[in-house]
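Predict the structure of Metallophosphoesterase.
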Amino acid sequence: MARVAAIVILVLAPVAGAVVAVRYAPPAHATIAGQTITVKPVIGRDTTELQGGAIVRPEHGHVGVLGVGTDIGLDLSLDWNRLIPQDKQTRAYVTQLFDDPRPAMSEVREAAQAYVVRWAALGAAGVVIVEVGVALLVLQRRRKLAALPPDLAEAVAAHNARLRGALAAVAAVAVLTLHALAVQTLSHHDRHAVIGSPFFNGTALAGTQVNGLAGEVVPFLSVLQPHSTFYEDVSDNLDAALANTDLRASPDDVLFIAAEDLEDVNGMARIIGRAAKLTGADFLAYTGDLTFAGKSLETYILDTIDYYSGGVKVEFAPGLHDTPAIVRAASARGWKVGDGRTHDVSGISLLSLTDPRISTVGDFGTGAVLRDPSTDVTTFVDDATTEACATHPDIVLLHDHLLGARIAAAGCQRVAVIDGRSFKPLGVQVHAGPTGEQSLEYTGGSAGGHVSTEPNPGDIQNPATFEAFSLNPSTGALSVSVFTVKPDGSVDISAPAPIP
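Done. Here is the predicted structure for Metallophosphoesterase.
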């Protein structure tokens, strides 16, 4: 009986190690709106709590096998003042995060899941390694004793009896303590009936309970706006428009979505991402001005694109509003940021470029400054043209159509220059190359529905457009379909049209 009990305790020790590791490991981290949030899974809890219970949500996970398991909730901690900035204009951008919090919630959920899996594996593996190490030491000791004469082996064993007893006692205490902590952790149940605070009714935060001082502050924040269903309607209309539709002109074509000038319209970021997913796009090409102010708190829009696209890879040619903070955030998410070098993507060659200027509008200035003091606009165009003429990429991707026209006129791209910075979509433009040959430029309009630089982060007030390009890598044949989202929520998608 004692041996059976010892075997059971040792077999279950790795499970206990996994539970204890999850309980005592340091918290994980997730980045939302440019702010690091600590994420600590709590075994036995059926809620998610922010700032020690100041704000409570009913979301939680469950871990178990064969009907036996436990809930796992979360402890979240953040700097509320940074997430809800005092500046009214800046706060207007961030309210969209609360209008559609699903991408942010997904980031937190993934951080929590990775935390549980990682620390449970490390805890279990650590215990297994210790058990195997001890077993090997015991076997080695027995082999050494077996190699000695019997009387000498008996003398050695007797001499070490007290040490063996002490080590066995320490090991037993350690294993039993590990099991006791695991049992205590699994037997703990922190169940809480979440009673949604009434001032959240009609918003994306409905069902959230607020306690203490936060209950006095939150009702006055501008994030508490009635939840808009506009982009949910647009998403449904997009699904209907793309049903049984293939935007590839031929089966061997590379299909990519191209968009420009969101400037914080998070709802349209959702639509662009979903379009990339539904069409089976090989990649998404974004030609700049993701955000308006270029502040790190606006980076949630990148998460929105990734979330709704299902992780479609992104080629990013930053524009004037895409400050170094936005570029760093894009690189951190695995986006390919334009570096002025031709590279292959999904079977075609692409030269993507970062605009040499940065807008000062984020700091309430006027005009633009050079991104790199040593690279002005003329140098930028010359360098881009030199690279294009040396490598002859299929596509050149950049932000400003005025600069794109100068690069296209050199005629070194194999298929087309794709650019933007024109609120009105200009579409196909044909340039005469240096020896008289035709050279193609395509300029898209605002995917955020803008007609000026004035920010409008909510529901679009004007038609918003973006494109799907179908390119045959062998022949260079290019077709385009235009997506148009209208202020009434309807979605038009033109059939693939060949560009001569």
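The chain has a mean pLDDT of 91.
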